[in-house]
Structure formats: C-alpha cells, structure tokens
Amino acid sequence: MEVDLSQKEETRISAQPNIFMKKARTLPVYVCRNIWKVGKDDPRRVIHALKVGVALTLVSFLYLLEPLFEGVGQNAMWAVITVVVVLEFTAGATLCKGLNRGFGTLCAGSLAFFIEFMAEETGRVYRAVFIGATVFLVGFMSTYLRFFPFIKKNYDYGVVIFLLTFNLITVSSFRVQNVLHMARERLYTIAIGCAICLLMSLLIFPNWSGEDLHRSTARKFEALAKSIEGCIDEYFNDKDDKVGENKLDGPIYKGYRAVLDSKFSDETLASFASWEPRPTRHCHKYPWQQYVKLGTVLRHFGYTAVALHGCLQSEIQAPKSVRLLFRDPCKRVASEVTKVLVELAYSISNRRLFSHDALSDHLHEALQDLNSAIKSHPRLFLGSKNGRKVTEPKHEKTSSAVALPSLKTDTSVMLQWKSNRIADQPKCSSEQKQLRPTLSKLAITTLEFSEALPFAAFASLLVEMVARLELVIEEVEELGRAAYFRESTASDELTIKVKIENMRQDENSHDLHTHEVHRIVD
Which residue stretches of 120-178 are H helix? Predict the structure, then answer.
C-alpha cells in the first residue's frame, strides 16, 4: 500500500512540469481571447481607452515641450494627475469629478489665501498655533460634512479635494515663502487638465450616463420576459427529463440576475446623469430618479421570476399529467406577461406612451381562464390516496365526504423509525451522517400531500406575478408622464405587433424543433 502511494506521488511530481508548460502555452491564447471579448462586448471601451491615451499625450506636452514647461514649471505634473483621476467612461462621471475637483481646489485656495492673510501679521509661534487650529477645524468640519447623505452622494470627491488642497497650501505656507504663487500655478494646471478631460468626454464620441441608464432599463424588461418564457417552457415541456435538472447558470438565471443586481448601477448612473446637459430640447429637469424607482419596482417583480425558477429546482414536482392538464391557461398567462414586458420595453426604449387599459384587460382575461381551469378540477387540490392518474369526478360529493390524510399513521411510522434507530445506534460517525437524509426522505414519503400542491404553488406565483406587473405598468406610466414621452402612433402599434408575432414564431419553431428531435430520438 505504501509503495503504491509513493509511486502515485512520484508520478504526480513528474507530471507537474508538463502541466506547467501546457498552461504556459495556453496562457497567451487565453489572454488574447479575453482582450478581444471585452472589446467585442462593448466597443466603446476601446474608444474610451484611446481617448485617455490621447488626453495623457496632450497634457504631457506641458512637461515635454520647453516653451510650455517654462510657463507652468514643475506644476505641469498636476495636470497629468488630473487627467488620470478625472477622465471617466461616461460624460456625467467626468463632469461630476471635474467640477468637484475644480470647485474644491478653488474653494481650498481661496480659504488658504484668507488664512495666510490673517496669519501674516502675527509672530512665528502664534502663526503656527493659528495654522494648527485652522487645520483642525477645517478637517473636522469637512470630514463631518461628508456624512450628510446629499453631500456623500454628490460632492464627496469635491470635499476630499478641498481638504487635501487646503492642507497642502496652508501647512506649506509656514515653511515656503512663495506658496501663494505655487498654489496659483497649480490651480492653472489643474484647470488645464479638467478642460482637456471635458473636451474628450463631451465632444469626442461622448458616452452619456443617462442613455446608458435608459437602455439598460429597457433591456431589463426584455431579460425578464425571456426568463419567464424559459421557465414556462421548461415547466411544461413534453420531454421525459426531470424538470429540476435546469442549471443555475442558464439563460433563465442570467435574465433575472441582471435585474436583481442592477441596484448599484442604476443609482450610480442616475447620479451621474443629473450632471449631464438636458437630453431634450425643452429645458425641464429630466426625471432620472424615476428610473431608480422603476428599477426598484422591477426588482420586486423579478423576485417572482426567481420563485418561479425555484419551482423548477424543487425536489417535489407535480406529475406530468397535472402539468399538462393546465398547460394552456398557464402558458396564456405567461404569454400575456411577456407581451406586456416587451411592450413596456419598447415604450421606454422609444420614449412612447402606451395604453394601460389594453394591457390590463388582456392580463385579466388570461387570469380568468386560469381561474376557470382550476375551478373545473376542485378535487385535485384536496388530496387523496388514489392512483396517479388524474380523472374528472363523475358525481359531486359533499365536502364532508372528502377523506383528508391523517397524521396518525405518519406519526407512528416516525416514532417506530426513531425507536429502531435508538436500538441500533451506529458506532461510527460516518454512518450517522448517512442516516440523516433517511429521516427527511421518510418524512416526505409518509406525508400524504396532494399531487397538485406543487402545481398550486406554481399557479399562485403566476397570479402574484400579474399583480406585481400592475405596479410595474403604473410606474412606467408615471415615468412616461414625467419624461414627456410622445403619444404612440399606428406605426408604433404595428411595430409592437410584429415584434410579438416574431416572438411567437420563435416559440413555435423552438417547440416544433424540440418535438422533432424528441420524435427522432424515440
């Protein structure tokens, strides 16, 4: 045994150089693929990288060219630092940082000049005490100011720059004689760096935070529509595969995950969009915070998609006969929900209003069909010991005649199992760990639940989804009024109908392809 272990260890050690060489050969290919993928996913990233390179080249001329260096001196490096720190991917982020940096530097320089003027006539000792006390008070007040939510959200970077610049100028003025001239030159170079950043960000292939927020909101509706459509197709598929085999890294999971993880990005984009110029010809304030509220309501709706996906992962599934019995009304409800989501996505994407009543009427009609289908099979949800074959009762019986499962049998079985387990208690801890799942499986087996209860949970989630969708519709309608969306035209309605028809054709072709493949396999 020891010889075999030593041989395996020697084989593993001898194979390590080969594994290392193989990884070294595949590393360049892996890096190149990732570089290409990042640029292919969003080509604007490549353009932004080029803009940063051009901006750094322009600002470095202040240091490289002799005539420009004689004008600004060693402070030219502050322009380079400003470009590195301020130039961001979107115009709103650049404006936020640039204006915060410029305003913070200006306020800090003005306050430092005033402090220098006040301390100039005092002696050296009193001047040191005055500067120390001023630094303490300004540092305390600036840091405490950062805890205010409004300041933290919009001007935190400006307060940091103000505190840094003020301390550099004020403390340096105690030792350096010409510190005010140095501060003025530094302010000029920072202004040059901010101007180059704003030029690159606003005039050369600008990326607007507001447009990113607008497009991402519309994409979230489409992602949820695909997730719900995938859940319904998976639940009512005609294959004999187990429903719960759907993986967590599939398109269903990715669709609602993009919605649930969007809170931070929505708030950040809305904050940066408020710094950008007005996106309309009218100078009214654009309701970017309304997008944040819509995102909150949409995430609340997205939790139903998560729960719907959880039904696919459940260990207890309704029989196939029960699922097929209610397939058509459930699919109609889901189809109406996806159509509403697609229409809302089109409304937001094209800034067009929609008909609230038309959307709600179709949803309520689909719900009525599902309700009628469930009411036509009342005995399914009461539980019985009959076989798994689902049949329609021929004669109505009173509620007192319905036999409900008794817990006495289950309790006695559990007590008997526990007594046998105590009598034959294992000595090894590994055997104890193996026996633990047996208890839960026995409990699931002995409890005589109705076969239709898993489907009842699924159907109740569909009803809850429609109820929450009403809140989403109202929020989109409020966004349309606040953002002055245009009235929908006949061409818009035709475009939505074509889009929905294409979606239906894709579903039918997918179902036909699945049926053909399944028939060939059989």
Answer: 124-145, 149-154, 156-172
Q: How far is CA 26 from CA 14, 248, 330, in A?
A: 20, 28, 49
Task: Report residue 456 CA to chain centroid gap.
Answer: 30
Cα separation, 66 vs 3, in Å, equals 75
pLDDT value at residue 435? 38
| In contact, 62 and 68? CB cutoff 8 Å | yes
Phi, psi (degrees; rounded to nearest 5) at 486: -80, 160
484/486 Cα distance (integer angstroms): 6
List, in sequence order, every residue forming a beta bridge with 352; answer none if it has no partner: 486
* pLDDT at residue 419 tops 80: no
Closest CA to 173 of 129, 131, 125: 131
Euclidean distance between CA atoms 359 and 195, whole angstroms? 49
Q: How far is CA 481 from the centre of its chain?
A: 26
| Burial tier of 203 (Cβ tally within 10 Å: 0-12, 13-18, 19+) | exposed
Residues in the chain: 522
Token pair in block for residue 125: 């000792």
Mean of pLDDT values over 250-262: 86
Residue type, position 463, single letter? V
